[in-house]
Amino acid sequence: MGDDDLLRQAGLRVTAARLAIMQTVRDTDHPDVDDVYQGVRERVGQVSLQAVYDSLHALNEAGLVRKIEPMGSPARYEARVGDNHHHLVCRECGAVADVDCVVGVAPCLEPTDTAGYVVDEADVTFWGVCPNCQR
What is the helix, strand, coil percentage profile of the chain, to 5? Predict the structure, then answer.
């Protein structure tokens, strides 16, 4: 299924900017908004930063991209959605890498006390120093 079909299925209008955003997020490793903005400008020319913010918000709400917000870092986006994976974040350079779930089904981790909540997802961030920064 193409990105235009995914947008329509989510009830979103198909625009060149939204298609370029989805492609940029898919082609870039956990880009921040500035990375997405530059990628969209390279693909479609002039676009406002606000339009990129608005589209990223709409795409995240529709579940077509995932927004992650590592503490102390700008928000990042990814095209890998719906599989409850986790992330490794470098304390030095901010690089982000995916980590598959331990069990593979959401939630792959369970709290010892749910306080009455029905838990359906776990979001874990592992912090450390990436191989490049260890050199």
Answer: 35, 15, 50
- And the tokens for 22? 């989805």
Do 128 and 114 contact (CB within 8 A), yes or no?
Answer: no
For residues 39 and 50, the answer to whether their CB atoms sit within 8 Å is no
User: Which residues have a Cβ under 8 Å from the Cβ of 69 and sit 6 or more positions away?
Assistant: 75, 76
| Token reading at 16 | 């060149």
Query: How far is Cα of residue 5 from the mean position of the Cα atoms in its chain?
Result: 20
Write out the two tokens for 68: 């992650």
| Backbone dihedral angles phi then psi of residue 93, each to the nearest 5 degrees | -110, -10
Q: Which residues of the chain have pLDDT under 50?
A: none
Distance CA 101, CA 35 (A): 27
pLDDT of residue 104: 64
Ramachandran angles phi, psi of 47, nearest 5°: -155, 145
